[in-house]
């Protein structure tokens, strides 16, 4: 076999017309590597790896999309991981934001870890870099890679375009397997393509939630999406629709749908409800079939949690749940809402108690949005998701230069940011004891003194605290101050678990309607029975996750029991989410629980080490929230060094 480097240089010299059949794809990239970047196809230099701070900044910039993407990355990994592939998601600069992989697998290559930057300029022809450079679906199979280092690897990457048609990410699968069949890799590429399609559709529909969405099949069998307002003006189009219907790629301004299709207003629905098949006729007479989705009901899907930095924009953001929607038809919750409404002018601190995923955060935002403070900021701080050393400065602020690493201009702190509005202290049970004392002082005096500054600020804040700990037990253990508890507990709201809710069946059906139903997917009676019997340790969060995943897994238009994945742990082993046997609602036996615990501990340690102590990155890898990971670290007695 001709030496890899010589083969590439020879191909570049000969030009595309003279390459063996099927070899013209890498040619363009190979020739860029040689002629544009001046690379030599010997050994690749080190792949750039950015700091955790940069990874986090890049993640924050895309957070509204990542909430959808992580779920799809997990799903994709659950499919292709079985044949050794890892899954990565990068931003448009090739910076790896998330990775799902079996690090112990012989097919694993640790070059793909979060923070690694995959561009053609550094890594030569490769799945992510070439996909981003061309903005096109890309498969790079073994020796199609430019550098010899990568010729045992195969990657398949698909570009992700935002609703405004800008390129924002690449979804990629990679395997290091010299015996991989080209056909297997072609199938993997199709799976990635489908995942990317689903993800882009979810983001498009989310961003046009109040519009009617038309999903039309192009003659090549691929879908394209249009968003249409109540007057039948096209107000959005995905990248496929723009190309197919010859719409402007940028500078999109609304225009009548009837400039593209023969007038047929009856085909377009404006009311929420399940999707309906439809057909439209193009002006040249060709017919396009597809589906029409009415605008989302206000509480149509699990919502992205606003990032703390953006939380000031308020819970009143479109798509928020109202207090009545939050309570559903559960009498304890409607009573709580009633009490909260009556107290909303008093500013009494509110303490929300309930298991993970029951909707405490959602309630806090809904309460703020309907309170007299709605026009003022809603600011959140998760006390478990932050290293102890940071909570103090984040909460109370600091003066410029107050400590090493402090921002020059200092920070006002969340209390001051929330002035006039609401401060939501999530996971208050995890607040370190010395900060409990300081928090108590602020609550009593209404004054904050930022670290390192003599200035005292008066603050007027509605405090809502939440926890899923048994606070009485923590008080008895000396881990939580009783006086702080009484101070926070102006009114205590117990949020029931999903399994305790009187309207559990209605909640499950509403979830089915707004996830599966909207996509025209039905749930088989046997699957619905399992949903009703399941004990839902992860509550609403778990319910939405399980049903959305089942929609993706369901072949055809029917969710069957096996699509729910409720008979085996569906997530990376996390006892909080560990799913008891659907047919044995009493939950896993003690030794199953112990095995899960052991597996979880190993998975956590493995990920924390692999992410060099970056808890946010490890949490993403493990598919759990940072708060959950901090809780699990504590539960396993894993302490952080340094
Ligand atoms: N009334 C509701 N209708 C629909 N979805 C809801 C409702 N309440 C909560 N959810 C969804 O359930 C999930 C969990 O809710 P939330 O984050 O508020 O729970 P939590 O109790 O604060 O959880 P944790 O304590 O673990 O942070 C979210 O995806 C949220 O959008």
TrEMBL record:
Residues 326-552 form the Sigma-54 factor interaction domain. The keyword DNA repair does not apply. This is Sigma-54-dependent Fis family transcriptional regulator. It comes from Ancylobacter mangrovi. InterPro entries: AAA+_ATPase, AAA_lid_NorR, GAF-like_dom_sf, Homeodomain-like_sf, HTH_Fis, P-loop_NTPase, Sigma_54_int, Sigma_54_int_dom_ATP-bd_1. GO terms for biological process: phosphorelay signal transduction system; regulation of DNA-templated transcription. GO terms for molecular function: ATP binding; sequence-specific DNA binding. Keywords: Activator, ATP-binding, Nucleotide-binding, Transcription, Transcription regulation, Two-component regulatory system.
